[in-house]
Amino acid sequence: PGSISATFQEYLQHLGLQDFPCGLGSWNKSRCNARRSSRAQPAGLEALPPGEESPEVLLELLRDQHSPWALPSDCSPQAQRLREVVVLAPELLRGSRVSQLVKSLRILDKGVEEVDEGLLQFQQLEELILSANHISRVTSAHLPRTLKVLELCYNDVSDLQDLCAQPPPQLQHLGLGYNQLCGLSQEKHLTVDFWPSLVSLDLSFNSLTDLLGLVSQLTTLQNLRILLLQGNPLALIPPYRGFLVDSLPKLSILDDIYIWPEERQQFQGLAGQPELIRSEARLVVSIGEMKGLPNPEDFQQLELGCEGPLIACRYCVTYQF
């Protein structure tokens, strides 16, 4: 429980790959036995035994929306393709051969906590979407080398060291938005040494603060075209967008906004002025109305030396950000 392997097995059970019209059973027994035999005759030369169905009939039961074996309309196209492949080649259910057919794996909001070693069974996997889970650590040795897309948004990732130990060399998109990345040590993991093929990087809504340090690393990613950094404290720096646009001349999209040539021309030369990047901010707080406090004007009417006690009031105001 809590691992990708366990969640995938539950997913397979939900698809009913072991049951009619998929899987191995009396409905396709002779066909499976014929494939094992070296003397099997070519398809179509032999009539089906009683009680068995042809692959065409079985596929129709899966594809007909009115069939009791049809998947709900909100299921992914991959789920339908997987069931059809198992109908045509039910012997793939033996062992872990089914996982070798999967090129895209989406596990969203399933309580996954561990990216376990069982993921290596997916030898053809190119896209892995694990958003909205409880993953805090990703061991890169457990990721298939064929991976091109890795999405980890809305998790608990706070450190990239394990992910960058042996990252997939062909990875083109890395999604780390809405995690807990912070401090000055994460930027060193975002260089071409770890991600030579990276085209798209999502670091939005973390706690990154070192804009200069981050940019110095991102400039090594020669293939980077899409970058998301909105929601980080460093995005509050006034010259933030202009500094990035001028520092990364090959970037096409920053924070979901296309970079037009006019904007690049406008910010030309800003990358050579790092002194404009200050780690400070000015806040202006305006209080519109306060209730329940004495009016200071009432005390201004008092004259020095007058009889009666003089009442002084102090107030402490705390701002929480």
Automatic annotation (TrEMBL):
<dbReference type="InterPro" id="IPR032675">
    <property type="entry name" value="LRR_dom_sf"/>
</dbReference>
<dbReference type="GO" id="GO:0005737">
    <property type="term" value="C:cytoplasm"/>
</dbReference>
<keyword id="KW-0433">Leucine-rich repeat</keyword>
<dbReference type="InterPro" id="IPR001611">
    <property type="entry name" value="Leu-rich_rpt"/>
</dbReference>
<protein>
    <submittedName>
        <fullName>LRC43 protein</fullName>
    </submittedName>
</protein>
<keyword id="KW-0677">Repeat</keyword>
